[in-house]
What we know:
There is one protein chain. By secondary structure, this protein is an alpha/beta fold. The chain is 41% helix and 14% strand. The chain has helices at residues 11-21, 33-41, 49-52, 80-94, 109-118, 131-140, 154-158, 185-198, 212-221, 233-236, 240-248, and strands spanning 6-8, 27-29, 55-56, 66-69, 98-101, 124-126, 143-146, 162-165, 178-181, 224-225, 228-229. A 7-stranded mixed sheet has the order 3-6-5-4-7-8-9, with helices on one face. A two-stranded parallel ribbon has the order 1-2. A hairpin with a 2-residue loop joins strand 10 and strand 11 (228-229). Helix 4 runs parallel beside helix 5 (109-118). The longest helix has 15 residues, at 80-94. The radius of gyration is 20 Å and the shape is globular.
Amino acid sequence: QLADIHCVSTRQAQMRVYALTGNSESVIWTGCPSIDLAKQALSEPPVTAEELGGAGKPMNLAQSFVVVLQHPVTSEAAQAYQQMGQTLDVARTCAAQVLCFWPGEDAGADAMSKAIRERHDGLHTIRSLPPVRFLRLLTQAECLIGNSSAGIREAGWLGVPAVNIGSRQTGRERGRNVVDVGHDAAAIRAAIQQQIAHGRYTSSDLYGKGDAGERIAEVICGRSFNGRDAVRADAAATHPLAVGTAQSA
């Protein structure tokens, strides 16, 4: 409520922030900058096995595979081991190749990592990838499985089928590419099979059109803060600091 401007990622977020501030002129829908990266990813060549790296079962990225990316839910840390093990066991029955990313470092991560290590022979595991390379990889996969926000945001714009498991993304807007299920083996299996059979979805602009960085820069350059003029657009084009700020946005 103290901020001069709010650049929000969705139209619903715009209405929510407006309800808090009461100032419609300060709340501007720009889209989410992560969609800019998704747009960039489409111009990149397919990810190769050499670029992928990782360990475990060798991957042939020219053949069908699914990606598992599941993080712990802090309030459900005691169930983290069972939740990850269940997801992986089901995924392996639905796809010949399963690429699993290690979880984020929240409470329950050690238990999830243990579940992954116990199934290492049947998986290809990887720590992380640069953002654009990761998103390019998603376009090569049949389905994204787990509870990452990437299934909600970037995968929606890319049209990648996603199976969202559990409560981690509760309340977050999602497009038609997402099927939500609980931690139930039969429901997860059915959702994965449904998404693989469906294939690609039409791109959704729910979280933007891939130009959020430009929109945010335009908003900042065109506003004044506490009575001071903002950086003019023509100055921003030549000022190194201003350009860097715009790119970061």
